[in-house]
Amino acid sequence: MEATANVSNGAGLVYEEKEDTLGPEDLSEVLAAGTKEVHEKAENTQFVKDFLRGRIRKELFKLGAVALYYTYTAMEEEIERNKDHPHFAPLYFPSELHRHEALARDLEYFYGPDWQSQVSCSQATQRYVDRIHQVGQEDPVLLVAHAYTRYMGDLSGGQVLKKVAQRAMKLPPTGEGLEFYQFDGIHSAKAFKQLYRSRMNDLELDMETKKRLVEEAVKAFHFNMEVFEELDEIGKTIPEDALNAGMPVHGAMGGDIS
Ligand code: HEM
Q: Does the CB atom of residue 82 touch ligand 1 within 6 A?
């Protein structure tokens, strides 16, 4: 079967990219299969379960945005460093994917104009950030695993998370504070994910490297879970506010933000 992805290139143009039948050795398949179990674990962390039920305390959500800010700052810094590297260049989509600036605007909304002096990088986030920098500088092919874990995840569940957060914290319908979840350069998340998968599959990588990429993606999931667990611990120390505004989770999402 052949799939065709229509994807905006960010300048309003649309181009097509064909994806041949996928095999078990294709990187997109190797990564999906190799992270299936850890994905289920991530979905079942307390913080994520609470979030999906609309049990989101604003203070905790803000700290989550701070963690994402440091994570994406590191990741996108390393992506910029490696944008011409043959093992990353085909996955370089700054205008479609990059989240650093959206997160900076979200933090400005939540913390005000002097947000930078009010936020800091937590311990669990710092460990994640350190690994991203290490990979970007010492073993750039592994950056693919970090980009996959975050961007493909954001494109899969983002819209549902945005709606839950908007409703639970009564944020404005205009999207302020939630720009992270809004990919203005992507019209169809499904088509973009197909393009991204076919770009991953075109990278010239041997099986040994694909296995290292799975290991790194599993690590990336664990770094995310450690951040969730840290937020959960902090949550136990701050008062409850916005609760009971949950939404149904599965079925509503369909694996696509569009
Ligand atoms: C894909 C749901 C948390 C990373 C998906 C898909 C769904 C989903 C339905 C399917 C997309 C498709 O078929 O195209 C959820 C739910 C979560 C959650 C309900 C809990 C809130 C996470 C977390 C991460 C993550 C915490 C990592 C930080 C990914 C990745 C994919 C994905 C990398 C792409 C899989 C692939 O097609 O190769 N998610 N997810 N997800 N998710 Fe999640």
A: no
Q: Confirm or reject CATH 1.20.910.10 for domain 25-235, answering yes or no.
A: yes
Per domain, the residue ranges of the chain are 25-235
Q: How far apart are CA 162 and CA 167, in angstroms?
A: 9
Q: How far is CA 27 from CA 60, 77, 104, 121, 232, in A?
A: 35, 24, 32, 32, 33
* Pocket flag, ligand 1, residue 43 (CB < 6 Å): yes
Global pTM reads 0.88
Cα 71 to Cα 7, 146, 224, 227: the distances in Å are 26, 10, 10, 10
Q: Render pLDDT for 115-152 as a digit per residue (tens, 0 to 9).
A: 999 999 999 999 999 999 999 999 999 999 999 999 99
* Binding site membership of 148 for ligand 1 (Cβ less than 6 Å): yes
Q: Measured on CA atoms in the order 109, 115, 116, 122, is the torsion positive or negative?
A: negative
Bridge partner list, 15: 7
Residue 203 carries which side chain, given as an amino acid letter? Answer: L
